[in-house]
Design brief:
Elements (H helix, E strand, L loop, with lengths): L1 E5 L6 H7 L2 E3 L2 E4 L2 E4 L6 H10 L5 E3 L3 H13 L4 E5 L7 H12 L4 E5 L4 H16 L4 H11 L3 E6 L4 H5 L5 H9 L2 E8 L2 E9 L1 H15 L9 E4 L6 H12 L5 E4 L2 H7 L4 E6 L2
Parallel strand pairs: 1-2, 1-6, 6-7, 11-12
Antiparallel strand pairs: 3-4, 3-5, 8-9, 8-13, 9-10, 11-13
Length: about 280
């Protein structure tokens, strides 16, 4: 079985090799220069350029050919294919993967819209790898993943409203007012779409608000992995993580440096948790 995902899963080249999966890069365009995510540019380089850029970078999906090349290689090696993509509500990546499936003309290819991003997508990939390594039949893997994805939750504390304004999600007046009041936006994916869920004054209150929102939504399944992620610098990440550990009782989370595509919209200084709801 061949497992394919895209680079918004924040699985870098080394980890992809370890997992024995393929990662198709999205692209980010900064000051007219195009970079393949985690191929031509690494997250630490990106955030340096992001803070220097006058205009917000743009992003673009992979082409169908990017997926088709991997499909053809897998089919040549007599492998079934499972593809897990960034939410179709925020990117055309799923569409590119589906077009490539039509071009390959094989019913051995299964494309799944994760309805998620970054560590939420990674959790779906982690489950696919677990099922593959247990020699689960391909159609059973697809069925399990299609159900599992609806229990994946991701919620993030964003450091500034600036990038929401630059990305057209907030008016300049709201962004300036929020910055003056030191408001920290809290965002999440709702039905695959990025939503501004709440705001709080300061990091500590925003973290408490995240705990409140998670408790209101239901329990974390501690039998499944929990992911902690960040954009830009990891300053303050340990305190964020420890506060959540104390609240929910998880240990040994997975970590990830959120890459350029999602980082373009979140900006530096974001903190996130992704988990499976009971």
């Amino acid at each position: 079985m061949r497992i394919i995902t895209d680079s918004t899963s924040d699985i870098d080249t080394q980890l992809a090799t370890q997992y024995n999966i393929d990662v198709v890069p999205l692209k980010v365009i900064i000051s007219g220069q195009e970079y393949k995510d985690r191929v031509d540019i690494q997250p630490n380089e990106f955030y340096t350029l992001l803070e220097q850029a006058e205009a917000l970078p743009t992003t673009s999906q992979p082409s169908p050919q990017d997926f088709l090349n991997l499909y053809e290689d897998a089919l040549k090696n007599d492998e079934d294919v499972i593809v897990l993509t960034l939410s179709s509500a925020v990117s055309g990546t799923y569409q590119s993967a589906t077009i490539a499936k039509d071009l390959a003309e094989s019913d051995r290819i299964h494309v799944i819209d994760s309805m998620n991003a970054t560590q939420g997508l990674r959790l779906l990939v982690e489950k696919a790898i677990q099922l593959r390594d247990q020699n689960t039949p391909t159609q059973d893997v697809v069925n399990i993943l299609e159900e599992y994805k609806h229990n994946i939750k991701i919620i993030a504390l964003v450091d500034t409203l600036e990038y929401f304004y630059k990305g057209g999600r907030l008016s300049k007046t709201s962004a300036v007012a929020g910055t003056l009041l030191k408001l920290k936006p809290i965002v999440g994916l709702v039905d695959g779409k990025l939503e501004l869920i709440s705001k709080a004054r300061g990091t500590q209150k925003a973290t408490s608000k995240i705990i409140e929102l998670i408790n209101a939504d239901g329990e974390i399944n501690l039998d499944e992995p929990v992911c902690i992620g960040y954009t830009g610098s990891d300053d303050g990440l340990e305190k964020f993580e420890d506060t959540l550990k104390d609240a929910f009782g998880f240990s040994n989370p997975l970590y990830a440096f959120v890459g350029p595509v999602i980082g373009t919209h979140a900006g530096p200084g974001a903190r996130l948790i992704a988990y499976i709801k009971k």
